[in-house]
Amino acid sequence: MKLFPVRLSNINKMLDFYSQFNPSPLSIKQFIDFGLNACPRKSYVFLRKELPVRLANIMKEITLLPESLLRMPSVGLVSAWYVKSFEEVLAFEKTDPTEPNLEKFCKSLIQIRDRHSDVVQTMAQGILELKESRNGAVEPSTELSIQYFLDRLYMSRISIRMLINQHTILFGEIPQTGRHIGSIDPLCDPHMVVQDAYENARFLCDQYYLASPELEVIEHNEIDKGNPIKIVYVPSHLYHMLFELFKNSMRAVMEHHGTENDVPPIKVTIVKGKEDICVKMSDQGGGIPRSQVDQLFKYMYSTAPQPSKSKTDLPLVPLAGMLMAFSDEANELLPIFNKTSTRFYKATVPTGDWSNQVKGKKSKPIVI
């Protein structure tokens, strides 16, 4: 299925060209090393080639989605955003890094970032539209393709936003001050980020349930005992993960202990070891049934009620452990469009080869 009309045949040619190249993954250390000696011209030359490659790789995968999903209005909107952004980046493909071009490029990147700010919500709405059009029943093969694609779409989106944020913060109109290097904090305090995410999630919980669990944080610094843990990280990324986990945890705790006066607290443990930093969140929200464990990381599964739509027809956010490597080992993991990825969209649902994996097939009762 063609994603773009015939009049945009030139865009299709450029997509074919740039999707031949693999994106260049970067580590946080590389971002920092460049940021300490930041040169807008070097960044410009790199991004005008790297951004089209990253955009083209994921745009080619959009065309491989099931046609039933591509016909959904929200998915079409996301596709149009990527086309527009790809066109805008290509406008700088052969331009020199003069001061006027550098200024235009920075403004264009800000527009692209803002345009894609609602990709996650809009794509989620597209999935809901598909489920509604099928009365809640989606073919297993389609669900498999959607799961594979969304993993790659969101990883690609994070990587593109990281590149754009670094450039626009370092070389934007407002000079950066403080210790941050772009969006990276070389002395990020995970305890403070945990507290910030908790307070914002608690605000939502208080509004919905009129109460909320308390927070207990424990730190174990095995490398520098007695001192608070500091890491090189992007605080906004850590905050987003924690905020979503806190919302899930608070909902589970409140629904499990809603009638009790003393709601058990949420406990967060932060541990710094020789190779990584681990953040563990635990609660007394009733746990997860073993039969549902395989569903936890599927985008089309949720225990929360379906969110209502806002005036823009986008779903409102419902009140619904991570591991971080050190900066020199924290390389980007980027999706690549190739024959291997193409085969995943054509794969059928794997057949269960264990006795408890095949659903719907009833076994005969054993009579002893």
TrEMBL record:
Reaction(s) this enzyme catalyzes, per UniProt: L-seryl-[pyruvate dehydrogenase E1 alpha subunit] + ATP = O-phospho-L-seryl-[pyruvate dehydrogenase E1 alpha subunit] + ADP + H(+)
Swiss-Prot/TrEMBL keywords: ATP-binding, Kinase, Mitochondrion, Nucleotide-binding, Transferase
Pfam families recorded: BCDHK_Adom3, HATPase_c
Family membership noted in the UniProt record: Belongs to the PDK/BCKDK protein kinase family.
A GO MF term: ATP binding
Entry keyword annotation includes Magnesium: no
Source organism of the structure: Anopheles dirus
The Histidine kinase/HSP90-like ATPase domain, residue ranges: 235-306
Record-annotated membrane-spanning stretches: none
Predominant localisation class: mitochondrion
Subcellular location(s) per record: Mitochondrion matrix
One cellular-component annotation, GO: mitochondrial matrix
Branched-chain alpha-ketoacid dehydrogenase kinase/Pyruvate dehydrogenase kinase N-terminal domain mapped to chain residues: 25-185
Record EC number: 2.7.11.-
Upper classification of the organism: Eukaryota, Metazoa, Ecdysozoa, Arthropoda, Hexapoda
Classification via InterPro entries: AK/P_DHK_N_sf (IPR036784), BCDHK/PDK_N (IPR018955), BCKD/PDK (IPR039028), HATPase_C_sf (IPR036890), HATPase_dom (IPR003594)
Enzyme class: transferase
A single GO BP: regulation of glucose metabolic process
Protein name: Protein-serine/threonine kinase
